[in-house]
Amino acid sequence: AIIAAGFSTAGVLKNSYVSKTKGSLLRKVLTTVHFSISIVLVIGSLIVASQYQYLMEKPLGFNQDQVVVIDIGKSASVSKNYESFKAAINQLPGVLASSIGTDDLGSGATNNSGALYPLHGTREDVLTTIFGVDADFIKTYEIDLLDGRTFNANLETDYEKLNVNEAFLIAAGLENVIGKHIAYSKNERPYEVIGL
Q1: What kind and span of H or E run contains 117?
Q2: DSSP code, position 160
């Protein structure tokens, strides 16, 4: 009420009120700060939107469209008879391929992470994610191999072979990984890499 009494009501209503320079300066500073924050928020929103669009459209290196993942967990009956379970899934209409693996590709969650020890390369150990998969995994996810071959179910020795990705190749400091050997620990026998 005291501040309002200091104003000339007629002057304010006629828009002829002249503000003091201190109040005018504060108003200009606050308006400039408000405008600057608005610009920063708009630019930040555009950056987030473009990053989200990139994330949604970036090719992941595998086909995740129309792929159904069934988590069998620790089901002993399915784990022991996974070949018959897989054969039953393949008999369903519309199923083009199926595979058994320890993890869901692309989910970001895994329970098999650890160090691998390349016997060649510039690094002694490489922290990586390890997926246990069957011979149809690469075909099911339509993963394109850059070099080498995929697993062959008819070769029992392929259960002791590895396929690695480009990120592992770079992290291990390897140029050509096909035919190289990698161990799960320093004391274990190494496994041969057959595909990239």
Answers
A1: strand 113-118
A2: G
Which sign, positive or negative, has the C-alpha torsion 53, 67, 192, 74? Answer: positive
Do residues 124 and 117 make contact, with C-beta atoms less than 8 angstroms apart? Answer: yes
**DSSP 8-state symbol, 119:** S
CA distance 126 to 111: 17
pLDDT tens digits, residue range 133-180? 888 888 888 888 888 888 888 888 877 888 888 887 888 777 788 888
Q: CB neighbours (10 Å) of residue 59?
A: 6
Structure tokens at 68: 């159904």
The residue behind tokens 């990139």 is 54
- pLDDT of 12: 53
Contact call for residues 153 and 98 (beta carbons, < 8 A): no
Quickly tell me which residue has 């504060």 as its tokens.
26
